[in-house]
Amino acid sequence: MLRTVALSPRTRRTAAVLTLTGLALAVAGPAAAHAKWFAEGADGGDWGFFLSPLPLAVTAAVVVVTVLWRLVSHRLPRPELPFLTPLGRLAPFIPRLVAIHMGVSLLAFSVTGHFLTPSLPLGEVPGGDFAGVVQAAIGIWLITGIRLRIPALGVVLLGPPALLAAGPVALLETADTLAVALFLAVLPPSDRAFGRVAPSPQQLRWALFWLRMFVGIALITLAFSEKFTNPELARNLLEAYPELNLFALVGLPVDADTFIVMAGAIELLFGLLVISGAMPQVAVLVALVPFNLTLFIFGTTEVIGHLPVYGVFLALLVYGSHRESAAAVPWFPRPADWRALVTRDPASRAADTPRDQRESQGAA
C-alpha cells in the first residue's frame, strides 16, 4: 500500500523553484550570440517571418510564462534560493564591480577599433579615432572608481554618435550600456574602501529599476532585430557556425528557421524576465547558460561584448540574494513614486543619499 508523504511548505517551495530552474535550463540554448558580431549582414525588417504562426505562438507562450513566473514569485520566499544568501555580502561593492565591467568593455572596444559594440567600427562613427579616445578615457575613469557620476553621464553622451552611425535600432541593441550608466548615476560607488556604498531603499529601488528596464530593452530588441525580423542574418550565422544548433548536433530534426524562432524566443524571455525582476537568482542562473555556451565558439569578442551584461547579472544575483535588498529587485514605481521623483523636496533628496555619505556629511 502506498503511503502519501506530506511535504512541508518550505520543501514544496524549494521543489517548485528547482523544477522551474530545470525546465528553463532544458530549453536554454545559445540564444545570446549576437549575429551582427560574427555573421555577414542582412537587411532586417522582415516582419512577415515574425507574423507567421510559429513565431507568434511561441511569443504568446513566452508572455504567458513571464506572467506566471512573476505570479509564482509572489508565493516564494525572498531570496528564493536561500543557499545563495552568502552572495549578499557583496552588495556594498556591486556599483564598483559593475563600473569595472563597463570600463573594461569600453576600453577594450577602443583598443580593438570598435564603438560600444563589436559590430560598429570606429571608422563609421562621427569623430572616428577621437571618439575612440573619448570612449577609452571614459572606460579608464570607470575602472578607477572615482566620482563615477561624471563618466556615467559620459556613457550616455556616447549614444548620439552611435545613433548617427548605425541608427536607432542599433542604439537600442546597446541599451545595456545606458542601463549601467543610469545605475551608476543613481548609485555611484563611494569614496570609502573598495567603493563600499550603503544605499537608501529609494535609491536602490530606482537604480535597479533603470538597470532592469534598459537591459531588458536591449535583449528584446536583439530578439527581434537579429532573429524574429531578420531571419536571413540568423541563417548566415548558423551557416558560418553550424555548431550553434545544438539540436542538430545531437540528431534532433530541428531546421534552421525553427531554431531561429526558439533562439529568439529565449532571448525575448530573458529580456522580459529581467524587466520583471521576479526570482532574480533563478533567472540569472538560467540566463548564464546561453551567455556562457557561446564563449566556447566566439571567445574574446563575446566576452568583451557581454561584460556589461555580466555586470548586470552579478548585480541582480547579489541584490536578489541579500535578505534586505531582495524585495527591491522586482520593484516597479507607482504613480506616486514618479511624482515624488519629479517633485523631490530636500527631505526626499536627503533620503535618497546613501547612508555612508549622510554619516560623513554629519561628521563634517
Summary of the model, kept short:
The longest helix has 28 residues, at 201-228. This protein is mainly α and 364 residues long. The protein has one domain (31-358).
Give a written overview of the molecule.
By secondary structure, the protein is mainly α. The chain has one domain. It is built from 20 helices and two strands. It has helices at residues 9-27, 35-38, 47-50, 53-73, 94-112, 129-144, 149-157, 159-166, 168-173, 175-186, 201-228, 231-240, 246-249, 256-276, 280-293, 295-298, 300-321, 335-342, 346-351, 355-363; strands at 114-115, 117-121. The chain has a two-stranded antiparallel ribbon with strand order 1-2. β1 (114-115) and β2 (117-121) form a beta hairpin. α4 packs parallel to α14, α5 packs antiparallel against α10 and α5 (94-112) runs antiparallel to α17. It is globular, with a radius of gyration of 21 Å. The N and C termini lie far apart (75 Å). Residues 1-7, 18-32, 345-351 and 357-364 have low confidence and may be disordered.
